[in-house]
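Field reference: sequence -> structure
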Amino acid sequence: MSYIRPLTKCKFTVSLCVYISDDDRVGEELRRKVRILCWVMTSPRNLGNKAAAVKDTWGKRCDVLLFFSSVSNSTFPVIGLNVSEGRDHLTAKTMQAFYYIYQHHLNDADWFMKTDDDTYVIIENLRYLLSTQNASRPVYFGHHFKYINDRRTYNSGGAGYVISKEALTRYGVQGRANKSICRQDGEAEDLSFGECMENLGVVIGNSADSSGRTRFHCFMLNAHLVGDFPDWYYNFSVKAVAKGIDSVSDYAISFHYCRPQDMYMFEFLVYHLQLYGVISGRQDIT
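Structure field:
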């Protein structure tokens, strides 16, 4: 079902208002063509707040939405994995979740996105990025990081990353069974998964727009606007770190470190807020 957002357009000289609605035909066409499975890494203590906010907001726009934790919960619902909670086992969560998806949902989508339960994602903009990509290629997209004093590069886990169907297939067929290709626990989750993808011949795609602006974001929007970044971010980012409105793509995809109230704020700003008397005529530049 298409999403219709009503807008009132009024002439100031007469008391006449004409009701119009957004034209979302392009978005609906992309929804049919670009199928996305989203899976969210969460924990039992976060189901009632963070995970619930994802479910209430952006998660409902995914073609398939799954939550993974260490304990199953059929009411929410959430899928329990055979892994302990804690940062030391985030790699195990990710590897087991992707293998579960390979076993049960490989043909339900073309692209498979992993996020944390404090990441907000604008699914329409993700579909737009992926609309020019081929899911049969071994590729994945996100915010490009590098390991300090190392040649390894990978995509940030917090900002969320999305892998192609071919990348998931390679992991399911080759990576899961061979720990020398894909470690199954330990080290940083996003670094471990990036190393796994590299060993499987999966390349990191360019997620910046044509002006070099970022689409996947490791922090909340305000941090990227004012440049309130920790030192490690400068060391890990592959591209030079920029700040300000002109550094963030108009077609931004994700923001990390969102509280539940931030999720609902994004939901209102992106999908409900209107400028009275203004109808946007901007055309896209990728």
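Note: The first strand starts at residue 6 and ends at 11.
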